[in-house]
From TrEMBL, chain A:
Keywords: Aminoacyl-tRNA synthetase, ATP-binding, Cytoplasm, Ligase, Magnesium, Metal-binding, Nucleotide-binding, Protein biosynthesis. NCBIfam families: pheS (TIGR00468). It comes from Candidatus Kaiserbacteria bacterium RIFCSPHIGHO2_02_FULL_55_17. InterPro entries: aa-tRNA-synth_II, aa-tRNA-synth_II/BPL/LPL, Phe-tRNA-synth_IIc_asu, Phenylalanyl-tRNA_Synthase. One of its GO terms (biological process) is phenylalanyl-tRNA aminoacylation. Pfam families: tRNA-synt_2d. It catalyses: tRNA(Phe) + L-phenylalanine + ATP = L-phenylalanyl-tRNA(Phe) + AMP + diphosphate + H(+). Its main location: cytoplasm. Residues 28-224 form the Aminoacyl-transfer RNA synthetases class-II family profile domain. GO terms for molecular function: ATP binding; metal ion binding; phenylalanine-tRNA ligase activity; tRNA binding. It is found in: Cytoplasm. This is phenylalanine--tRNA ligase.
Length: 257, 322
């Protein structure tokens, strides 16, 4: 290397870029970023979230349990962070909260083009006094998030579903038109209104507090936006992949207000 | 849950729309569809609706509401026949470590048993074979097929035992190291405490409760008399047994989602009627041990204000219809 050459620069990973971009969009809607432990306890990952022991709903997520640490799991979703935040709300007598929880989660399943045993989730929630944060708020929030992240032609659709921690529960589909491609509906996240039992388990009164929660694969959103065919590329360590992304997106330039 | 359009059609006078339209109707109002192949839809019923929708009747009821088509018949709305619960041919006893006495429900919430004498075991009629094969089931014989058909139709798991040598059934916990051979011929050592269906006379296990029937009382071409079981077992207990034995069956999947024990009576009515139709025989009295009998029925209510408050909608009395 010549002595006057500029030093080689590092590069942000595309997941980091995406998290910053999504955080900026949600930030403009009043959401902060919350983190929690990846090694979770059964209470915050399952039981408090209304997925009791020996309930068939536990079969919906294949879990890594920890040897010699009974009751500990590698969290299967970042919704565990929501639970911790709700507990904090009860403890400190806070009336409303909005957080996104972007983080790594783990599933005990075989990997293929669309499945990884560890991946990122964009999880989050908004709660407030009864009647203020509704299923319609959830739709509005995602409508805006996807328009800003994917583009203005994006549309959002809900389909009925089931998760232990929400009632009613929905799957969120996004109508995405790849540049020059045909539009199609794509499944992106699960969501719903927090189940009264979850609110209760956090130490809050479900008669007084309600809100929505959501969660979905984060890589999947990046894959849709940039047309990436294989989720395993994100953890491949291939520098050519990393260099294919602009580090500063329009959304993160705008910053949070 | 695999359902066929032709089977669903038996619930409606009006012709149902095509498979694609049924798939869309369910997708946007009730359940995801895993795949559709010809006449068959594989409906992904999640745990919140598995108690009532792992059945053609359940899916038909959903479609009736979504498409605004009246149900022609609803087997769960037809009054049950009165039956004497004392039978000279069969006694049933539940000896259940979780239950305190006859009136306290433990792992067996209800056990109905019916004796049918003089049946002709033979291949099923073609309509029944076709109905089962359309949803990926294998036809065995008219008796086994009848129990499977009624389970897939209204959701109640059923089992037929060869009644030879059985006059008394004991539902009890497995003893230490107890062995049992299931219908497929595999031998299992069942964990202590697993709920078994046993022949009280010989103390032999004839079924793993809610999971799988045993070889010892298999219905074969030589079978003349049957004991038909329509029972309900605790979901947690069944889920554990199925997990430990790595034996997930149509029955265990239903029981772990806690169908109503009330369904047993409808299940036995339907299966006895079908068996008489396709296998003949004479129905003796039906025994009904019901430790979990509900003392009163519950009403569920919801207010418009509550609904609007959660959904963010503006429904009024004008949208409301019973």
């Amino acid at each position: 290397m010549k002595p006057d050459a500029a030093p080689a620069q590092g590069r942000l990973h595309p997941i980091t870029i995406a998290v910053r971009e999504m955080a900026a969009i949600f930030g403009r809607m009043g959401f902060g970023i919350a983190y929690g432990p990846e090694l979770e306890d059964d209470w915050h990952n399952f039981t408090a979230l209304n997925v009791p022991e020996d309930h068939p709903a536990r079969d919906m997520q294949d879990t890594f349990w920890i040897k010699d640490q009974p009751g500990k799991v590698l969290r299967t979703h970042a919704t565990s962070v929501t639970m911790r935040k709700l507990e904090e709300m009860a403890k400190n007598g806070i009336a409303e909260m909005r957080w996104i929880n972007p983080g790594k989660v783990f599933r005990n399943e075989s990997t293929d083009m669309t499945h990884e045993a560890q991946f990122y989730q964009l999880d989050g929630f908004a709660v407030g006094p009864t009647g203020t944060v509704t299923l319609a708020s959830l739709k509005g929030t995602f409508d805006r998030f996807y328009r800003e992240y994917f583009g203005q032609n994006t549309r959002v659709r809900f389909r009925p579903s089931f998760f232990g921690f929400t009632e009613p529960s929905v799957e969120i589909d996004v109508w995405f038109e790849a540049p020059g491609g045909k539009g199609q509906w794509l499944e992106t996240a699960g969501a719903g209104m927090l189940h009264p039992n979850v609110i209760k388990n956090a130490g809050l009164d479900p008669e007084k507090v309600q809100g929505f929660a959501f969660g979905g694969g984060l890589e999947r959103l990046i894959m849709i936006k940039y047309g990436i065919p294989d989720i395993r590329l994100f953890h491949s360590g291939d520098i050519r992949f990393t260099y294919a992304f602009d580090q500063l997106t329009e959304n993160s330039k705008q910053g949070t207000v | 849950m695999k359902v066929s359009r032709a089977w669903l059609q038996t619930y409606f006078d009006t012709p149902l729309p095509d498979t694609q339209a049924l798939s869309d109707a369910l997708t946007f109002h009730a359940f995801e569809i895993e795949e559709t192949v010809g006449d068959m839809l594989d409906v992904k019923v999640l745990p919140n609706r598995a108690a009532d929708c792992l059945s053609h009747r359940g899916i038909a009821k959903e479609l009736s509401a979504i498409l605004n088509l009246p149900l022609k018949t609803d087997p769960l709305r037809q009054p049950l026949p009165y039956r004497d619960i004392v039978s000279p041919y069969l006694t049933v006893e539940i000896e259940d470590s979780n239950g305190f006495d006859k009136l306290t429900a433990g792992k067996c919430l209800r056990y109905m048993g019916a004796v049918v004498r003089g049946v002709k075991v033979r291949p099923s009629p073609s309509w029944l074979k076709e109905a089962l094969e359309a949803v990926g089931q294998r036809s065995v014989n008219n008796i086994v097929d009848a129990t499977n058909y009624v389970m897939l139709d209204i959701g109640q798991p059923l089992h037929a035992f060869d009644a030879k040598g059985i006059s008394s059934i004991l539902v009890r916990d497995a003893r230490e190291g107890e062995k049992m051979t299931i219908l497929s011929g595999e031998e299992y050592t069942v964990p202590k405490g697993t709920l078994l269906i046993t022949n009280a006379g010989t103390s032999e296990a004839i079924g793993i409760a809610g999971v799988k029937g045993g070889k010892a009382a298999e219905v074969t071409a030589a079978t003349a008399d049957l004991i038909i079981e329509s029972a309900n077992f605790d979901g947690t207990s069944i889920r554990r047994t199925a997990q430990v034995l790595k034996l997930s069956t149509d029955a265990s999947q239903r029981f772990q989602n806690r169908p109503s024990p009330e369904l047993c009576a409808y299940g036995i009515r339907e299966v006895l009627a079908l068996i008489q139709k396709i296998a003949g025989g004479e129905i003796a009295e039906v025994v009904d041990e019901y430790p979990a009998r509900p003392q009163e029925s519950w009403n569920v209510s919801v207010s418009l204000a509550k609904m609007n408050g959660i959904l963010g909608s503006r429904f009024t009395r004008a949208h409301h219809r019973l």
